[in-house]
Amino acid sequence: MARVVLVTGVSRQVGGRVAEALQADPGIDRIIGVDSAAPDRPLGRTEFVKAELHDGSVGAVVRDSGADTVLHLSLVATPSAVGGRAKMKENNVLGTMQLLAACQSSSTVRRLVVRSTAAVYGSSSRDPALYTEDLEARDAPRSGYAKDAVELERYVRGLARRRPDLSIAVLRFANLMGPSVETPLTRYFGLRLVPTVMGYDPRMQFIHEDDGVEVIRRMALAERDGVFNVAAPGAMPLSQCLRRAGRPEMPVPERGLKMLGSLARRGRLDYSPEQLRLLCYGRVLDSSKLERALDWSPAYTSQEAFDAYVAERGTAHGARSGRARRNRPPRRV
Amino acid sequence: MTMPGDDAVRPVEEERGLAPVLPLVPRDRRGGSPAGSEDAGTRRDARSGSFAGFLEFCERRLDGDYQVDDFGYDDELTGNVLIPLMRLWYEYWFRIELRGLSNVPDTGRALLVSNHSGVLPFDALMLQVALRDHHRAARRLRTLAADLVFETPVLSHLARKAGYTLAASEDAERLLGRGELVGVFPEGYKGLGKPFSERYRLQRFGRGGYVSTAVRTRSPIIPCAIVGAEEIYPKIADLKALARLLKLPYFPVTPGFPLFGPVGLLPLPTRWIIEFGAPVGTDRHEPEAADDPGVVFEVGDEVREIVQRTLDRLVVERGDPF
């Protein structure tokens, strides 16, 4: 069956790499990449369409392309990525509404895969050790990226109700980690002196960028409905991450970190209250539902994903880092 | 005579490798005070007879070269640092006697249900040491703890690293599903913070959530009675207003605390007996019976009765608490 796949957020890392991965599949006729900015790398046989998601022009793209599969990957995590919180919300929430409206009225769309985030679970000391998909957030996110994701998921559920014939998967991603991906967390680990919340050592969990792309590629072609956690097996305490990266940590009282956060927001770091809670309580997902559904499991554990990040970039900034690991063969665990 | 020479050389090499690393990561963030880690070191040292081994352990810790499970349990830190610290209390302070250890299976899931007392949860820590040090399979105990533990800075991550997790049925079921030995104190705060006058009188065993968990996962329940912890802090009064202010479940007044300040925090050196009873099987019920209140109360009462009977007997057998 000839297939037409539409990918949003194609100019960004994950979207671009998913489009690239789909190109290798001869079963896919056309790949249409949509984004508001031009891609900074060649997209191969992916056809690029410049369109803003939130102004409605994407509806025409969905209609005209006759796409049967829509991969919505354009959720933006940081205001600085799009130029301000207002623009970010426009992109994340209004953009999603427009795209879902287009899917609802389309007669060709059969499959929808939406990238969401594990941030929808919030982060709380009163939650079970591992989050499963059916768990209600005890401490629902109230702002920023995480709240956008909560709203996005609500709109997707609405669409699923109105169009029960559509096959829809929502992917709640753990923090992406790896040699090239850029996220608030990778920038955080790249700091010369890493501020941590005094008295807390949260459990961190990652998903390697290659595994993340692979999950979306497989999900695009599979007919699995529902919400899925996407995370690598295992977890590491933040202190262990910093030791593996050879980064000195700077424990700061929680209040101080809030202030530091608001200062940093003006710089290149984004510290939302949700991020701070994550740095207190951590978050670990149970991704067994995904593994069962796809009959596949991530190639990298959380620790291996983090090591891949450290190997590529961990030593790039600080001259002092990496010294501890010098002359040592990398240990595969 | 070359062997001692070799041994003497190795630590120096290790030390050289370690020296540039030390200043980078403050040691006290590791979950034990530096003094505590050294203490663990000398113990380990005494056991393996190798200072180099200890240095290697430190280097590995500083490099982050260890495994922590998704609950945050750090087996290496627990075994090498936390347990040795608790062992001092176990061996020299409370001089604990164990009975019925063979009732704890060598492998596979089981739910250990114990009485809870003592104002501060020393009983949970000692139970962990008992099973790790004295059980023939050196079983690690994964204990369910109150949410207050995980809200408290420092304590929250130390508890996770030591194998504790939130007392939620999701966590308990997941751990039992992995074949772990899970410890639970169904009395909760009511047991921990009960006044001295009510010692060895079991409080209500919650709503029996632990029974549901055991039935659903078909785990045997091992009743466990701990005698001695009830007298470590004889709580004679409770400053409720202060407790509310500090958001604590209770604010105890003991003969020593708060009168003598921090010195009053030292637990009394009572003599303890821990007895493990014969497992109460849950496989006579179908897993679906986990939601049947009748079954839950029946099994719950049975377990509670066993623990209470054992306590009564042990208190008499022990005699003088000191």
TrEMBL record, chain A:
Pfam families according to UniProt: Epimerase
Protein's recorded name: UDP-glucose 4-epimerase
Record-annotated NAD-dependent epimerase/dehydratase domain positions: 5-231
Protein origin, superkingdom: Bacteria
InterPro entries: Epimerase_deHydtase (IPR001509), Lipid_A_modif_metabolic_enz (IPR050177), NAD(P)-bd_dom_sf (IPR036291)
UniProtKB/TrEMBL annotation, chain B:
Domain Phospholipid/glycerol acyltransferase: 110-229
Top-level taxon of the source organism: Bacteria
Keyword presence, Cytoplasm: no
Entries under Pfam families matching the protein: Acyltransferase
GO MF assignments: acyltransferase activity
Keywords, alphabetical: Acyltransferase, Transferase
Region (Disordered): 1-45
Biased composition (Basic and acidic residues): 7-17
GO cellular component labels: membrane
Protein's name in the database: 1-acyl-sn-glycerol-3-phosphate acyltransferase
Species of the source: Actinorugispora endophytica
